[in-house]
Amino acid sequence: MSWKDDRDTLIAQTMAFVQSVTGRRQSGGPETAELAVLSASETLHANAAPKATPPLAPVKAAELSPAVGGAAPRPIGPSDVATEIRARIAGFRAHQERFNREREEYFSKTLARLKATLDEMPPPRSD
Questions:
Q1: Which residues have a Cβ under 8 Å from the Cβ of 15 and sit 6 or more positions away?
Q2: Are 16 and 37 in contact (CB under 8 A)?
Q3: Total tally of structural domains belonging to the chain
Q4: 51 within domain boundaries
């Protein structure tokens, strides 16, 4: 079986499925569905254009009832938001203060090492 035959069979099966879903097919058992697939497949193999199916009716969206949707989320009050913002700002300030303190300590240590190195160096000669 070539890829074209596979494609034609898939198209025929898809058309039969669409017809069964939309109710356009004659009512019958599984044998009728198999015959529809075979006849559609034979039609495609004969290089005849498949019949155009009319457009489907639009599907209406189902609305969820409050019982199905679950419990409604608790609304966030202005006081909760303000409290959280204040807490985050306090945390950020503490973080920045720690960085400033560590930077000052590093600068002080580096400057002290530099001064110690300069004190240990011999004085320059004046020749």
A1: 40, 50, 53
A2: yes
A3: 2
A4: no
CA distance 121 to 119: 6
CB atoms within 10 A of CB 72: 7
Domain that holds residue 112: 77-120
pTM: 0.33
pLDDT digit of tens for each residue in the chain (127 aa)?
A: 688 899 999 999 999 888 888 876 555 555 555 555 555 555 555 555 556 666 767 766 666 555 555 666 776 677 888 899 999 999 999 999 999 999 999 999 999 999 999 888 888 777 6
Q: Could you write out the three-class secondary structure of the chain?
A: CCHHHHHHHHHHHHHHHHHHHHCCCCCCCHHHHHHHHHHHHHHHHCCCCCCCCCCCCCCCCCCCCHHHHCCCCCCCCHHHHHHHHHHHHHHHHHHHHHHHHHHHHHHHHHHHHHHHHHHHCCCCCCC
